[in-house]
Amino acid sequence: MAPHIYVGMSAKAGPAVNPASARVCAYAVLRRVFEQGAYADRALHAQARDLDARDRALAMRLAYGAVQRSGTLDYLIERLAQRPVARLDPPVLAALRLGLYELLYLRGAPDRAVVADTVELAKTSGRRGGHGLVNAVLRRAIREGTSALLDGLDERTPQHAAIMHSHPEWLARLWWQELGAEEARALMAANNEPGEVALRANTLVSDAISLARELPVSTHGDQKLAEALVLDGPFDAHASPLWASGAFIAQSRAAMLVARVLDPQPGERVLDLCAAPGGKSTHLAALMQGQGEVVAIERNPRRAAELQRTARRLRAANVRVELADAAIPRSQEASFDRVLVDPPCSGLGTLQARADLRWRVTPEGIVEMAGVQAAILAAGARAVRPGGVLVYSTCTISQAENQRQIAAFLDSHPDFVLASEGPVMTFPHRDHTAGFFIARLHRS
């Protein structure tokens, strides 16, 4: 994610001063995402450099919303245009997605302003006649009634729910099977809502009560996580002097739970595999009160450097970064009191925050990811001393990467047992934070 992206500019942000500027930006983001394969957050960062905070907030709402809802939008566009979206020129399709999203889901600006601006955007593509189709489709949507268009959708089956909630059909079927119909529907609905924006007070520098007093935005805490603050409004975190001083880091409450489940103690040796960008490593250091050692492993030099900077900013002096491959067992085995395995995953628990991720993940990718996770988990297990603790965590909702991964590990590692309380699981629709799986294991 781009380092200066605004934290907290959610769908609750107010109307923009210059809606046209925001639409121009959002249109450019959509084209970069769907025509060039760019990541939505990076494209927005590049396109919104000259926008003020309110225009940027609206541009993000428009761009991220249209990307998230593109499955539903395409279904309705085909009906209104009476032709497959595959036959539409990409710039025209981008304009249709943007305009229809605003008409259907925002409903803040006058319909005529939305149509006029979207048609003008289509004209800039240079495609002859494309703007006429955009004008006709959007006006037809207004005539039929935007509420009626959405009310015509249903969620009786995985296929219908995938259209209504704009998810790939394979993913709707997967969650239908693994979670049940009711949970799957609720999860998909939640994935299209703004996610929480939470800060972790860095207890090496401050505490949540003191931090809350200094923030220019109201917050609320979490009874189970004393260091957590959930923001009640927008906040440019990276521009804050509190950020520069290391008083906090942006981190979901679900991610904070990982270090809590590992429960490191002052003076211990802790290994954190796949540690970048450093949110969990520095949380471990804080829970250890800066005493002992956290060895943070990262194989990517750029991300390792980022991890180093994060540790310095958060004054986590007991974090030592090593450039290494987490899947390769360490030469000094069974030497750590606690080991955290937080491997790469499909990220299906973070769809609220990552607008385009649902369209990038594939079933084949999950299978491939599970193989990587198994290798890193096995390497992490070899580093745990007898009587030590191993925690495996992912930010995904997929049994192949979670429950089945742990079951296979326990079958091949009889010297490990799962903690009696079982894995911790969080869900966006139930816990109002990211979807995480956290399993605590003990080495006998």
Give descriptors for this structure.
12 strands, 15% strand, eight-stranded mixed beta sheet, globular, Rossmann fold, disordered N terminus, 19 helices, 444 residues
Task: Describe the overall structure.
- The chain has 444 residues and is α/β, with parallel strands linked by helices.
- The protein has two domains: 19-153, NusB-like (N-utilizing Substance Protein B Homolog, Chain A); 252-443, Vaccinia Virus protein VP39 (Rossmann fold), CATH 3.40.50.150.
- It has helices spanning 19-36, 40-47, 53-68, 70-81, 90-106, 111-123, 130-144, 146-151, 158-164, 169-179, 181-190, 208-214, 241-244, 253-262, 279-287, 301-313, 363-382, 403-412, 428-431; strands spanning 198-201, 219-222, 225-231, 248-250, 269-273, 293-298, 319-323, 336-341, 384-394, 416-418, 424-426, 436-443.
- Strands 5, 6, 7, 8, 9, 10, 11 and 12 form an eight-stranded mixed sheet that branches. The chain has a four-stranded antiparallel sheet with strand order 2-3-1-4, sandwiched between helices.
- Helix 15 (279-287) links the parallel strand 5 and strand 6.
